[in-house]
Amino acid sequence: MTDTVQLTAERAEAAAEVSVRDLTVLYRTDQGELPAVAHADIDLPTGTITGLVGESGSGKSTLALSLMNAIPAPGRISSGSIQVNGVGDVTRLEGRALRRVRGRALGYVFQASQNSLNPLKTVGKQLLDLGRAHDVQDMRGLVRRARELADEMGMDGARVLDSYQHELSGGMRQRVGIVLALVLNARVLILDEPTTALDMLSQAAVLEIVRKVHRQEGLTTLVVTHDMGVVSEIADRLAVMYGGRIVEDGPATEVLQRPAHPYTRALIGATARITGDTDTARALPGRPPDLTTVPRTGCVFRERCPLAMDVCAETEPQLLTWAPDRRRACHADPATTAATGEGA
Amino acid sequence: MIEARNITRTYRTRGAFTGERVVQALRGVDFTLPRGGAVSFIGESGCGKTTLGKILTGLETFDGGELVVDGVELSTVPQRRRASYFRRIQMIHQDPYSALNPTRTVDQILGDPLRMRARQTGDRAAGVVDRAAELLELVGLEPDGVLPKYPHQLSGGQRQRVVIARALTVDPEVLIADEAVSMIDVSMRLGILGLLRDLRTRLGISLLFITHDVATARYVGDGGELHVIYRGEVIERGPTDTVIQSPVHPYTQCLLSAVPVMRGLEEPGPDRLVPLAALDERTRTPGCLFAPRCPFADERCTAEHPVLGRTGGVEQEHACFHPVPRRVVAVETV
Amino acid sequence: MTAPTLGAATAAVPPRRRSTSWTAARRVVLRKPGRVIGLGILVFFALMAILGPYLYPGQLAVDPESIYAPPSGAHWLGTDFAGSDVLQEIVVGARYVLLTASLSALFTAVVGTGVGLVAGYHRGLADSVLMRATDFILTIPAFPLLIVLSTVWSFANPLEMSLVLGLTGWGGVARAVRSQTLSLRERGFLEAARGLGLPTRHIIVKELLPNIAPYVAMQLLLSVIGFIGAEVGLFFLGVVPFSSSNWGVMLNQAVFAGGAMNSPEALGYLLAPLVCILLLTLGVVLFLDAVDELFNPRLRERS
ipTM of this predicted complex? Predict the structure, then answer.
């Protein structure tokens, strides 16, 4: 049993486009340096879409930003490594080398993508700026590539390049964000809350496009979101974050079907759904912690956990493999987490 | 209780050089909201649902139709006395972060409208403190902890509860919730929706729920109606479950097809449609407004405007020439 | 939840809150040394303005034996053309300068804020009328007007001086406050206040004002500096008949009578008021940093 588990883990590592090991990101606050992400371990297997789910303050955006080694000022990566296929450890890069990696290896679509375009320049101008910043020789090729991508996403490429931000709808801006992230042929696409602030139809359209581009370009994609629905729509794998820790991961369908961490279970139960009994669904008591209110010892989720035991207050559970390709960080028996939870 | 009849709102902006631009935000919306009842309006952004909420709370005027509050048609009421009618209709804002004054404590936020209300009803202002605590308990907050706090010291969910408590200070009969949970952490959304549902049954408050997310409408709207609004026009309406399970208008079907499927727990509905891109909202057509986007449109649809009615032997009202019920929403697997 | 416990709890709340807002204010100021220095400078000059005339009662001592004397034990900052003690002049003159500037600043803040709030909140006719008035005020070239007015008006009285200065200065504040009000007006909490039917006065005073207070307070402090400059400038140019000893008059005397620009003798006399103005400006600028946090509860309590 242990052997096979070991084996699958190794195989996953070999095929991973990005692998994060023991990543800790600290933020300087009035109360000293506190971890926004603590000992995160995660692989993005080549060619898959991974969904990273968590509430506000869970550290999911921080983790996504650290893949680009782009943690803003009061924060810093204090330990760990991020191996990107063909690039090496991103955490060791700086200056010019780092800038090259951003864009050429890793494409990032920002959370406020609706606002991340410069309102005073056309999309085309911004594309050329991007090209210049990356010393692209063949500008015509760059523009051609951008048009191709835009067409692929169901937009009129030429028209989009001539547009200003305000001339594009929310869904279009999101797509332009994806074009700019991929135009330098990045192999890894990171989308931070790609559908927040979009209505249902635009959300569905953007998700459809992400799926399509992912497949056609052969990307490795990470989608950061708070919405279980979004993840279940497009992700192959699912990682759940809470209080700066990855508390569970595994294949998306399996995790949704049989959540092995009480938080995952609660999050699924708290999602407004179009099917099922509206009476059994319930909100999670309490509020998600932020940097300063996260418990410093023991399990970060224990204060809201229906299964909390004495050991949860003392020892922080490790993210361990408990079944093939499934990991969780919880002291409780996997059988109980799957069975209870709703009774909480 | 409120009744809206054929409410229309047209915005005209006249630029010095651009000429007149006319945007029809609402094209004749009517509904009846009985005591303790619920009506949900769903539609994508820019469909006029937010304008409707503002009109009903008196923050926005309308230029056609009638609004009846407690049996009184508001245009017969002099401007000065309308406030007492609009008081009965309170709004729960989308964004709990801007809906509370950052410079005031919860205590003050609830205290001022309560004192005003006490003066209006002739009650003693002394009861204000008890009432504030009572309201906070009603919305599921612990009064002693919350009263002295500033909004920024509360979580999004707690703030939204304070917003609801504030709306309740003036004894409203109707609450209008415009995207009331879209900016709240997922784990706390159902709590707010449950609270709104509770208020319906416990206080007999009617609820007008405005959202783009059909799934959330299910949680507050049991026994209520679902109205689907497209470019300012209601194109389908009926009992919430009927509209969700067997929608007949292609637009409703598109909206419902866009709801994510929770794989492992649900599977896509057999007739699920492909999401379609938004279109220029200004396109003018004599026919069905949805026809340019509609996968099923024919010549009649582009030439003639369908009106809301009950044809084709279906339970709900709709504005479509080709009403075909389709099962587009996800189906539970277990 | 029983009524007695509630009553007890709320009875305890008001005094506690007042004390916490004081301690919070103290914490805000103590957070950065610059703010403490700034506040120290401001308090120092305020005390000087209040107590100065009592420290040196009576007329300025004239000593023809020591004209333009360098600083010494007897005269810390030296003496002027008449042999009077420069320090004494600075201290005695502070009241007029500071009182005028503060009153003008207060006047602009009150009028500007009032006009801006009402215009921004009511919009429509009130807005148009008030904004045309504001535009009118803004187009008046303040300095030439002051020079013209000075020919018919005696500026010995701080109140008259500040009235004239203030009258020309509130336009900018009004415009800025109006635009802030317009944007706040669309915020959820103001829509909610209107929806609840709260009276307009409540909305303007209790909902709007606290939110623009930090801006107004900053304007107030900055305009104090501006008005000191304007008023000292007037006296320096000598367009206003100098009837009292003040910093502007001192500068005027130092330059035009003392020849401070070409000879080092009157340098002390020239520098003393200049340094005072600079110090005061420094104090205001350093303290400004704290204003935002003082008024914003979220920033205030961050320890």
Answer: 0.85
